[in-house]
Sequence to fold (212 residues):
Amino acid sequence: MNLLLVVVATGIPGFLSYAYLSQLGIIIFSKNEKDDKVIVLSIFSFLNIGLSFCVFYWLTSIEPSKNMPFSAVIKLFIVTLIISAILTLTLYPYVLKKMKKTIETYQGKNNISIKSNQTVIEKIIDSTEYKFKAVYIFDFDNNFIESGYLKRYSGEETTGFQISLATETFYNDEKPTFNEILNKFNTDPIPEANELLLDVDKKIKIFIFRHN
Fold:
């Protein structure tokens, strides 16, 4: 038990789980939520190493301890990697997504605002329901800036808000007007797939049309 607590306290066994789930956008913490991040790392570490100890003991009949022979330590390390990978790639994403969906459904039914640490643009890009995100960008004076398929972005915490557009622009000689795109936005047959992003700091409007 003492060995389990020591290993869990390092947070190492849970770091890979956290890093993977964070990259998928399933778990996100802001800079001000360091304590919450430590707690989640500890929970992942406890689950990963705890189950690994149980599986190791079941396979070898050797009780994990600080006095284990080196060969047993190597076996325990391998078991821990395998168990952590299985939990991280299968169970954790499934459970966390189900929990998130259940909470958001409850919030929607009860008209409770949905809080997220993701930026709006991150949630739009990370959405897997629609494969393509076509964007039209205007400034606050309704002047056309650019259009294309959204491909990459950077968050505010790195180099500021930046996006890259893939393939060719949607216009040739004549630039689309704000009213044309606004009409397209308001009359689209699948309105729930579209969003209008307003960046007050950068003074830009981004119409986003998602489709498959």
